[in-house]
C-alpha cells in the first residue's frame, strides 16, 4: 500500500483554518448541544462539508482522484480538530474514510478511477463490516455473497444476503463497502444505495455521538456486478481490513485526543473563574495536580506518540498495526479519563446537560469501543510485543532504550535515562513471564499492554521534549518537566506490573515466588540513576504553572 507523503505544512494549516471557520459558523456550542438533544443527523451540514466549497473529505483522497492527497499526519490533525468540535460529525467523516479505504488499499486501478472521483465529488460512504454475531471477531461474519454465473459458467456478479449492525451513516449513505463471505472467503463489495434488496434498519438511539447516524443494513438478494468486487479477487477482505488498521486506529486515537483536550481546556477555563474557599479552583494544589495536570500530560504524550507513528506511515512504513493499537488504546483511554476529570472539575455543573463537558464525556466513550475495543487493542499489543521481545531476545526494547539513552545524551533533563530503564525493565518482565508461562494468561497480556503503552508513548514524549527544548528554549523547562514526570510514571507502571505478574500468579505463601518478584523489582530499580524517581510533584507543578498561564 502506498500512501501519499502528505501535504505541505502551509496547506495543512489552511485546511485546519477552513475547518475552524466552518465550525465557528455552523457549529457553535448551542447548535452542537441542540443536535445532541434532538438526536438528529445534520444532513445539510454534512453535505456542506462535502461540497466543493469546503471539501474536508478531500484530505484523505489522492490527488489523481480529485483529492488533496493528505497523509496520516494531516488526517490525524483534521480528526483531532473535528472531534473537538463534535465527535458525531467527526464520526460521519471517519466512516466515509473507512468506507473508502477498501477501495484505496485493495481496489483495482479501474475501481479507483471509477469510485474515488465520485467520492471526492461528495458521496456519503458507509463501511459495513460488523454483524450481530461478528463484532470483535470479524471472521465470524455470516453475510454471504453467492456467485451469479452465465450460461458458460463465467461469474457475472454476486448475490448478497445478510445483515450488518452498528453501521455509521448506515441510514444516510450513498455508497457502501460491504464485507461478505464468498466461496473463497471474506470479500469487500461496493454497493450503491438504490440497489434493490438493500435497506437500512431503524436508527440506533445512542448514549453519545448522537449527531452521527448509526443503523443496521439489511441485504436481501442484493445483486452487484462482478466489477464491484474490490480488488477483483475473492478472499482478500480481511487482509484489506487489517491493512488499514495502523492508520484508522490512529485516527480514532486522534478523536480521543480531540475530545479529551476540548474537555480539559473547558475545565481549565472554568477553574480560572470559579471561586471556592476564596480563590479560583485552579489555585488549589490538589485540584490542579489531580484533575488537570495528569490528564493534560497524558494527552500531550499521546499526541507526541501519534505524531511519530503518523510520520512513519507517511514515510512509507506499512506494518504498523501494533503502533496503531498503542496509539488508539492510549489516546482513547486518555481522552475518556480527561473528559471524566473535566466533569468532576465542573462539579454539579459538569453533570448538567447544559455544559458541554457532559456531552463530551458521553461522546468520547465510543472511541474505546469502535474500530476495535480497548481489550482487542490490549490483546494485539500484549501478544505481538511478547512475541517480538522473545524472537528478538530482548533486542526490540533494548534498541528503544538505547534511543532514549541517546536522547538523554542530547538533553539530560528530559527523562531519557528513566524511560530507558523502564524499557529495559519491561524486557525483564516480558522475558520472565514468557519463561514462567504467566504471559499465556490473557490478563497478563492486558496488564503488560497498558505498561507497554506508557513506556512506548513515554519514549516518544522524551524525544519530543528534546526537540522542543532545542527549538523553543522558552518552553524547555515545561517540556522537560512533562517528559520527566511521564517517564517516572512509566517506571512506576513497570515496577507495578513486575509485581502483579510475578507475584500475582503465585500461590499465597510461596516464598520462592516472593523472593523472585523482589529480586526482579530490585534489578529494575538498580538501573536507575540514584534519586531519579524523586521530584514527581515538583515536575507536575511546573506543568501546572504552565496550564495556569494558558488562555
Ligand atoms: C456508534 C457505533 C458506530 C459504529 N460504526 C461502525 C461502522 O461504521 N462499521 C462497522 O463495521 N462497525 C461499526 N461499529 C461496530 C464496532 O466496531 C463494534 O461494536 C466493535 O468492534 C465491538 O463489537 P461488538 O459490539 O460486537 O462487541 P463484542 O465483540 O461482543 O465485545 C463485547 C465485549 O467483549 C470484549 N471482547 C471481545 N472479544 C474479546 C476477546 N477475544 N478477549 C477479551 N475480551 C473480548 C470486548 O472488548 C467488549 O468489551 C460501530 C459501533 C458503534 C457502537
Describe it.
The protein is of the alpha+beta class. Helices cover 59% and strands 11% of the residues. The protein contains 18 helices and nine strands. The protein has helices at residues 9-26, 29-38, 43-50, 72-85, 87-106, 109-120, 237-243, 245-273, 285-314, 321-345, 356-364, 374-391, 395-410, 416-436, 442-471, 476-502, 511-526, 536-549; strands at residues 125-128, 144-149, 155-168, 175-182, 185-192, 198-203, 214-225, 275-276, 279-280. A four-stranded antiparallel beta sheet has the order 2-3-7-6, with helices on one face. A hairpin with a 2-residue loop joins strand 8 (275-276) and strand 9. The relative contact order is 0.08. The model has no long low-confidence stretch (mean pLDDT 96). Flavin-adenine dinucleotide (FAD) binds next to strand 1, strand 3 and helix 12.
What's the shape? globular
Q: Which stretches are poorly predicted, pLDDT < 50 over at least 5 residues? A: none
Bound molecules: flavin-adenine dinucleotide
- Quote the distance from N terminus to C terminus: 42 Å
- Beta strand count: 9
Largest sheet: 4 strands, antiparallel
The helix tally amounts to: 18
| Rg (CA only) | 24 Å
Oligomer: single chain
Average pLDDT works out at: 96
**Beta-strand residue percentage:** 5-15%
Order of helices and strands: HHHHHHEEEEEEEHHEEHHHHHHHHHH
Overall SS class: alpha+beta
Strand order, sheet with most strands: 2-3-7-6
Q: What share of the residues lie within helices? A: 55-70%
